[in-house]
Amino acid sequence: KNNGFSNDDIAKIAQSLECNETITNFVLHDDKINDIAAQHFAIMLRKNSTLEDLSLQNICRAAYALTSYNEMIKNQTDSFGDIGATVLAEALRFNTALTKLNLYYNAIGDRGAGEIAKALRFNKTLRELILEKNKIGSEGMQALLNTLSFHNNTLQKLKFDYNNIPPETINQIKAYLARNKSPMDNIANAR
């Protein structure tokens, strides 16, 4: 937790993971990184063929050290957010090893979720996606569900608690998932 890594440190870590043939799980939690660091991870994901589980959690909270989630969302300027999600999504299109991606609490909104949805049209290895405690609304969730319903049958877990999904949209999501032939287990209710 909060290792104090700079973007340069992240670049070195990501570069060392590019050709790695043994590490399958990497977790970065409560660190102060931004979308530039996400670019380093994206480059790594395009080249790495062994990393199965990438977890970039609580990046925004650490970056701002704010007590209020709403305050963090209002004041984000140099965070992971939609830009970081977009950069990682582009790499996901080409990655064939990653099975779990955890982007918990990174101020990802509809735009970032939409880009992840586009990437999932091509990615056939990701099995679990954690997007809890971001700022995804109906539009972003609809993009994800459209992709899962028509283009991707490999994602098995989608967690999205604590996003900006209105209660009426949750019912639409449930109806969508009832028609979805994908093995969607562990769908969490948005709060």
Give a verbal description of the structure.
The protein has 191 residues and is of the alpha/beta class. It is built from eight helices and five strands; from the N terminus they run H-E-H-E-H-H-H-E-H-E-H-E-H. The protein has helices spanning 7-18, 35-47, 59-64, 69-75, 81-92, 110-120, 138-150, 167-179; strands at 25-29, 53-57, 100-102, 128-130, 157-159. Strands 1-2-3-4-5 form a five-stranded parallel β-sheet, with no helix packed on it. Helix 1 (7-18) runs parallel beside helix 2, helix 5 (81-92) packs parallel to helix 6 and helix 7 (138-150) runs parallel beside helix 8 (167-179). The two termini are 26 Å apart. The model is unreliable at 61-78 and 180-186 (pLDDT under 50).
Overall average pLDDT:
81
Could you estimate the helical fraction of the residues in percent?
A: 40-55%
How far apart, in Å, are the first and last alpha carbons?
26 Å
The arrangement of helices and strands along the chain is HEHEHHHEHEHEH
Number of strands: 5
Helices, by number, come to 8
Shape: globular
Strand order of the largest sheet: 1-2-3-4-5
> What are the low-pLDDT stretches, counting only 5+ consecutive residues below 50?
61-78, 180-186
Give the biggest sheet.
Answer: 5 strands, parallel
**Percentage beta strand:** 5-15%
**How would you classify the helix and strand content by structural class?**
alpha/beta
Rg (C-alpha, Å) = 16 Å
